Amino acid sequence: MNTVTTVLLHPTDTTRRHLRLGAHLLVMIAGIALLLSQKVFFSSSILLAATLLAWFTVRRPGKSTFWEIVSFAYLIFFFADWFFITRSLAPSLVHLFIFIIINKLFNLLTERDYYQLYLLTFLSMLAATSLSVEIEMLYMIIFYILLLVWNIMSLTLVKTWSRVDPPEPFPFSLLSPGYWAFIGLSVLVTVLFALGIFFILPRTQLGYLAAMRPGQSQHVSGFSQKVTLGDIAEIQEGKGEVMRIRASSSQPLAGHRFYWRGIAFDRYDGKSWRTSNPGTKFLFQDSSNNFYATGGTEDPASLVKQEVYMAPLDSLIIFGQDRVVRLEGNFFAVTRDNNGTLNAMGMPGHYTAYSKLNLVSPDLLRSRRINYSESFHRTYTQLTNRNPGVERLAVEIATGKTSVYDRVAAVQRYLETNYRYTTTDLPLSAQNPVSEFLFVKKAGHCEYFATSMVVLLRHLGIPSRLVNGFLEGEFNEIGEFYIVRQSDAHSWVEVYFGDGLWLTFDPSPREIAGGANQSIWTFINPRKILDSISFFWDRYILIFSAQDQLDVLDTMRERYRKLSESLRSSDASPESLRNQSYRIWKRYRRSLVYGVVAAMLSLVMLRIYSIRRKKNEVLKSPVLFYQEMLLLLQQKGFSKTPAMTPAEFVEAVGSLPQPAREDISSITSLFYKARFGNYVLTRDDQVVVQSALSRLEQMK
Amino acid sequence: MAFPLSFRPALRFRFPRFPVAVEFTREGLVFVLLCLAIGAAAVNTGNNVLYFIFSIMLGMIVVSGMVSRRMLQGLEPVIQFPDHFFSGVANVCYVSVLNRKKRLPSIAIRFVVRDHAFTSISRNFFFINPGEQASGFTKVFFSRRGIFRLAELELQTQFPFSFFLKIRRYVTDQTVRVYPKIYRFSEDVFSRFAHGVLTESPYRGDSQQLLHLRDYSHLDSSNRIHWKASAKADKLMVKEFQKEQGRDLYLYFDCFPKSLPDETAERAISFLASLAFLFSERDITARIVLADHAFTISDTILPLLQHLADWSPVLPSTLKSETPQSTDALVLVLQSRKVSPRLDSVSPSARSIYLEDWAQLMIEDGALHL
Q1: What percentage of chain A has pLDDT greater than the value 70?
Q2: What are phi and psi of B132, to 5 degrees?
């Protein structure tokens, strides 16, 4: 028997239909993946349409002369496509490839056809993933793997089953939940192994995919060398994602508000800000792609580490919490201007910034001596036109405040409490937007608040500047990262307190965003879960590099060293053990809770499965279900003696109510048939037995 | 693509509990080559997506190994041969596989016995429920007679992905005795044999074979009158019948080759066995003489077949050939024109039966195999 052709001749129509359905779904997924890549829109649409057409029109696949003619005709078209239509080999090859898939779809006959189709779809998926690295591609990969495993496994089953002689009925449906559960489990185990292999495989390149970043760059005008009041507001109207940041530190960060500093300006001409004298300096770079903004003497434990994953922006500004002291990234070079703005040459998609938080207590600031040069003072108190009204207001606010800090705080508090935040109905005066904001509208957005504060401070002779950046963003508790969107664009103020210390002040009356308020509902928020998956895909798959592997090894080695040291050095006193346990609990509590919950859920599900399986066994086995009945009746006070036959026992329980007698009689009858008559219980019989047993159980 | 056994790439992994041999299928080769290509591309480009896909493919290989190994676990194969095996024809044997696992079924299991002596035995079992046994019959074909020792059984599976054929081997120790090929002669061949070989008896008797016609005597029964001949001869003629075959029939084997193996000798042994079977079927008592062994064929030829299964047609150095006891015994000597006779003349009345003559006759006749 020619085994190549038996696959579709032997199976039942249902099984063959399921196999065809699986193949068609596989092609659909590949087509959708190509569509999502946004590069082969027309061809992938044709493929999807052809898939649907093949499913609904083809009844009995078979090699036909028609397709041979079509294939020959396409061969001619291919050359026409190559030389005259697209005039390029690559797109014409893509068209040819898609034609081959469509041809195969309409001619699925033998097992070899199926395998070839699987291979073609696999190559399509490969092409799609090379054209796009969006998170949607991960979902497509997962669906594809699930379907591919189902298809290959089902084809293997059908192939083997068709060789059984004599033929026997296919024992289960290829769409049954149990079979799908097995497929799902296989895929899950495959992915788990794959992740382990992925992390272990040595990398020969650093694996950055900066060149692969998809989509078009977002335009952000508020971060150019000159910005006009309103530019930030324009950015805030956008909803696009700008970057994702994971911040970590050995110091507690709860309650800290992150300002991702971008660009600072020192010169205000009444309507726009710019940098008067950039004074660009290159940051020192070492051999490990570290760029140092200071002398490199900072204690690493005191720094806040920020892993920044950038979406394409048309700006080369490096964002980070003030004050960035070190950068790690695949930059060609990094420069810094006199306002502390960091610019990149060759912006990668990902970098790490280390910042030292300027946490100084108000008392220290009050007592601090602030010295600066004349030129410095001139630069940072520059005003094109001094406004008497503004000056009066500034003096009024600062009345009674002796220290610079108190004056600055007073101005901030005044603006926060006396003005309304709005992104509409803005002071649009062409003459003096700040005056209109301060005295007329008394409402505006962050640019007006910040500009006004700088203007007021400069009228008081306090050096200050405007900073544009992003305010914190939305915190994702699941992945522990911030999603910074265009709507988070913000302006704030930096004030000089001597010895190179610039402190951040934000006069805008906005509520603190995000925060690490974790509740159980956070973890089942679908949007946050999807964001986390997307972050995981970017961080641990797309950008995973050899350095990450080394970092993981270092971290594991460090943790092991600390644990063994602490165990060696700790005493055995109960208090010490309690402290240690508390520390371990505090560090790993989430993982422990997840683990315990998962284990309990697994146990519960296993128990339910075991009970249902046992129930099924009881129902299927004549001996077991009859024994189950005897046990129930024994509990009710009706025991069968060994000398009694089942029929005699039915007579013996004649005192029971009629419904119970009928149940016992029907169970006994089925028992006789199954036990001695080689009768196989049907599903209806099982239902009868189950309901009879339930009624007997409830019988009083 | 199926590689011949001699150079099929087989990987043997020694696991703590039982070894599993792995052979590549065509699909598996393609998969592995694709895997290597993607791995090379990933290493070359540093593209993490390609690393991810490569990892998934490797993960599939790992899962495939785990699942197929689980399928092969807890299985007990059994093969039962019938009592009598004949070479040259399809024999039937009984195979069964018991699944001792408590929860997991075994899917797509193939029971295989591979041996150079016979075509492989194989039987597919699609689904073996936990705790149950699947069984069935399968054909086996031995090309040669002999005693064969079966050393190994195999259970194979391609589940789940058909990329690899996983094989678990079971040691067994079973002996199979295969008898020579038996040719079943048609009536036409038999009648020729009977006419040319089993000569008519010259003695009168009560068989149904006409011996001659003679004149009627007053002692003859009127039933024996041959009326047609009597009318022609114009006198009463009676039929005289032959004596029943009461002659001893001896069949000597004289196709001893100079060296072994020898195809002529093998064919002669098969022909001898076929004749013995024929005699047994026709209730013809015969004595088969094989150099130093002799068998009487009456209603069973089993001892002869069992002896012929592994009999080596070598003339012993001390020949103790049996001589016919009665002088009117019918003595036949099976010989071949390609092999020189080795026996001395066993009887003056011995007649030679040449293998080549009957071989051609059987080919023309399309002699049926047993």
Answers
A1: 87
A2: -115, 170
pLDDT score recorded for residue A214: 45
Please answer whether residues B197 and B351 qualify as being in contact, where contact means their C-beta atoms are separated by less than 8 angstroms.
yes
- Which residues are CB-contacts of B24 (< 8 A; sequence separation ≥ 6)? B3, B9, B32, B163, B164, B165
Question: A299 with A326: CB under 8 angstroms?
Answer: no
Distance separating alpha carbons of residues B27 and B38, to the nearest angstrom: 16
How confident is the prediction for chain A on average, in pLDDT? 82
Q: pLDDT, tens digit, for every residue of A430-487?
A: 578 888 888 888 888 888 999 999 999 999 999 999 999 998 888 888 788 898 988 8
DSSP string, B72-129: HTTEEEEEE--S-EETTSEEEEEEEEEE--SS--EEEEEEEEEETTEEEEEEEEEEE-
- The answer to whether residue B181 scores a pLDDT higher than 90 is no
Select, from the ranges A89-93, A245-249, A572-576, B242-246, the one with the highest average predicted confidence (pLDDT). A245-249
Give the tens place of pLDDT for each residue, A152-175. Answer: 999 999 888 888 877 777 778 888
Domains and CATH numbers, chain B: 1-178 (2.60.40.10), 183-188+247-364 (no CATH), 202-245 (no CATH)
Q: In DSSP terms, which residues pair with A354 in a beta bridge?
A: A305, A326
ipTM of the complex: 0.71
Q: Outline where A81-176 has alpha helix (H).
A: 89-106, 111-131, 135-162
Q: What is the nearest CA distance from B360 to chain A, expressed in angstroms?
A: 33
Give me B259's structure tokens. Answer: 């060296």
Task: Read off the pTM.
Answer: 0.64
Is A55 within 8 Å of A21 (Cβ atoms)? Answer: yes
In B205-298 the beta strands, taken as DSSP E runs, fall at: 210-215, 237-241, 249-253, 286-290, 293-297
B residues 86-115 closer than 8 Å to A (CB): 107-108, 110
A544, B55 in Cβ contact below 8 A?
no
Residue in chain B lying closest to A205 (CA): B46
Strand-pair category, A320-321 with A267-268: unpaired
- Nearest C-alpha of chain B: how many angstroms from A660? 35
Strand partners, A248: A305
Q: What is residue A479's three-state secondary structure?
A: coil
Q: Do the Cβ atoms of A141 and B67 come within 8 Å? A: no
Mutation target among A193, A350, A616, A621 for the B interface, most CBs of B within 10 A: A193
Question: Cα–Cα distance between A446 and A470 in angstroms, integer?
Answer: 11
Residue pair A331/A289 in contact (Cβ under 8 Å)? The answer is: yes
CB atoms within 10 A of CB B364: 10
Report helix, strand or coil for A321.
Answer: strand
Cβ distance A194 to B38 less than 8 Å, yes or no, reads no
